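Recall the central idea of this unit: under ordinary conditions, the amino acid sequence of a chain determines the structure it adopts. In this exercise we apply that idea directly, starting from the sequence alone.
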Amino acid sequence: MKTSDYGFLLFKTNYSESSLMLTFYTQKSGISNFIYKGAKKKSVPFFVFGHYEIASYKRPESDLGMINSLTIATPYLSSASHPAKMLISFFVSDVLRQTLKEEQADQVMFSFLLSAAQELNETNRLKEFPLEFAAKLTINLGFAPQTIPNATAFNLKTGRFSLDNGDGEYMRNGPMANFLNVLFSTFVAPHSDIQKQALGDILLYMRIHLPSFDNTRSLSIIREVLYS
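Accordingly, the structure predicted from this sequence is:
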């Protein structure tokens, strides 16, 4: 069956000497895997978190689509040519690849990703973008913590902000709890010298609540480059 769809490229790997296997989050089918024969000989660039129009077909007995043609749907030129934004795109794609598993349409999620890609293209707030993206993603995945005014403590395991400080591996008190409370309340990351640690805490929160989630490698790289 032939079909046309739009999608964000999340991952690519070699399939043969001239072909690639590509994973997209698509508008009509959610997570979708494709083989693109002869891809390495094509002129189309493969930008991770790039927005593409995909013409493909799928045999009834196969889970893999076969791409006929692939074109860039929206040329996010600054993201594609800006080294730090390219790094953020890899980070975003790594997070999405580990959190989005459904092979079905989700228009709310797709619209969120389209908005995020446009924002990344336009923003100069590079240190804040990964924090704000991760916080917004928890909303779209349905497990964002509920904030309260003037919180001074946050339990990563229970996902609760409070006014009562506590101890333990998953407790965050004082400035860090306040930072996270503001971020999850407004989805705007405060300008602070604890942004690096805050990003680690948000992703730890995601790992606690999504057992299969682990982006330790991409987190290490982005923290070293953006927050050094």
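Residues 76 and 121 are 6 Å apart (CA to CA).
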